Amino acid sequence: MRKPGRALRRPQQGRIVGGVAGALSARTGIGPNIFRTAFVCSSLAGGFGAAVYVLAWLFIPAAGEDGNIASRALADRRGIALAAGAASLLTVVLMIAALLHVGWLGSLSWPPVVALAGIVLIWRNASREEQRLLRQVAEPILGLSPGGRRSAFWLRVILAGVLLISGAAVVFHERITARVAWPLTGVALLLIAVLLLLGPWWLRIVRDQFAERQARIRAEERAEMASRLHDSVLQTLALIQRRADDPHQVVSLARAQERELRSWLFDGKAPGSLDGRAITVADGIRLIQQEIEAQHGIVVEAISVGECPLDDDLGALLAAAREATVNAAKWSGASDVSLFAEVEPTAVSVYVRDRGRGFDPAAVPADRKGLAESIRARMERRGGSATIRSTLGEGTEVVLTMPRTAGQREPSPAT
Amino acid sequence: MSGAPAKSGTTGKPTVFIVDDHGLFRSGVRSELGDHVDVIGEAEDVQPAITAIAAKEPDVVLLDVHLPGGGGQDVVSAITRTHPAVRFLALSASDAPEDVIAVIRSGARGYVTKTISGAELIDAIRRVAAGDAVFSPRLAGFVLDAFASQPEQQLRPAFDSELDQLTPRERDVLRLIARGYTYKEIGRELFISAKTVESHVSSVLRKLQLSTRHQLTRWAAERRLT
Description:
- A 5-stranded mixed sheet of chain A has the order 1-2-3-5-4.
- In chain A, helix 13 (312-332) links the parallel strand 1 and strand 2 (336-343).
- Chain A has 14 helices and 5 strands.
- Chain A has 415 residues and is of the alpha+beta class.
- In chain A, 63% of the residues lie in helices and 9% in strands.
- The model of chain A is unreliable at 1-6 and 407-415 (pLDDT under 50).
- Chain A has helices spanning 20-28, 32-44, 48-59, 69-74, 77-100, 103-107, 110-125, 128-142, 149-174, 178-242, 247-267, 281-296, 312-332, 369-381, and strands at 299-305, 336-343, 347-354, 385-391, 395-403.
- The longest helix of chain A is centred in the middle third of the chain and has 65 residues, at 178-242.
- Chain B is globular and about 40 Å long.
- In chain B, 40% of the residues are buried.
- Residues 1-10 and 151-159 of chain B have low confidence and may be disordered.
- In chain B, helix 9 crosses helix 10 (194-210).
- Chains A and B meet through strand 1 and strand 2 of A and helix 6 and helix 11 of B.
């Protein structure tokens, strides 16, 4: 196996799959297309090229990264189990194919097994960008993305149809005689034996995958809940502390919070959210303006351009915008806050700006959940982004952007 | 910036006329303006305002959009026909976009909301007196909305006059105004001078007033319904 040299790095740009050809070309000075052709040819003839390619992908670090994928994969025990499971499954299939002497398939040996196991490891341990790239290649084939499900279905139907017809053709052409039937029975027995031996292990791997996914979903839900609680309960408690000398205010704040919490716990309406109260972005912006002006006694200059209906992603955007506005009202010391929302064909952006005292975003203590959790993480969980620009003495601006999904991109009536 | 107003030449302070149907508001504005400007008169309805402004010829008229005897745009169009040197700054609590656009299209050089601070109002009056345009964040938002880019129109630029669409730069400037930036801050953000920002804003005002864009009327009509 090729030893990764110091300068051997898989480039991020100009790659087609893993960037291996690009890395080799940068090292040797030979054009990447030569390597690509070589890899494809040797893959078709025996699968050797595919195995070498995958191993190179594992062992050559990506440009800008310290370690290669293989070193990370060593720590991923589930991934290794999954890779071994997939490899053993493929080995069994290949063994059967070899027994039946099914043309070219029977001549294959270790390279596809190595390639498959390697791809599983890459899949689980590659950097985020590489995983995204892999997903783009794989999703339409496996039918994982909601959009690709239909075409994936047809792909599978066509594949199954081709296999069925060729299988039937072979069977009827050869005629089932005792000479053919006996090995077939043998193969069936072998299959059952392998299933008995390895079946439970494969099942467990699949179950583990499922459990891991469940755990991840639970963690995300917990984070979502924490940011909701922060926005509602913790904010109200902070307000109560500030207005401790005004019992009426305290009572009304506490009552409002109680109502909100109850409606969340028992009716499923999340606090701090605009569920059901706003149906469009401009509605939501107006609501934020009214609520914060009422609660914090500060002027919110709210302006929205364009309009579109709210969905979950845009709801999260508005919740983050609300939080940013609350922060400005509480900490900036400014008497007014600018809140500007713009709906564009591909994204919705919200800008929250104050001319207050400003702060150093890097110096915010880690236990202050507002910025990290309620704004940044909330946006990132849904594919959006949050940028905070603040200058001491000049003020702060929070820029929130959420891409619009394809389903909601119908033209709004105003434009 | 077409020639300094003649009458303010002696004192250096622009002369101001206030048109608003609320006496309390008029006196409030008067006291806020203090002696930074010369308030030379006030009126509370369309007809009296037209006669008084024609007689006194102030540099700047602070104009409420809603008046009992009609809209502020009636005052603007009557005066600009006979006294083109008088400039109008719309000052209103009204957020109704169609009212604001109507006043601007009849010839006002700017629009600010009544929540504006005294210092900002004085600054806006000086700007208008000097011939510049004054866009509040709200007006910038309205204009961005009204001139929302239309992909199907961009496909056939021959039919779309230059007056009917904003340049990307003008859009950037308006966006920053809507985000609450001052002209100076906008200049710093876009690496241009405050003067250039002003000329972008003036050109947007010109488009707003001269555009025959069908879109603009349709937009205002739709906004009225909601």
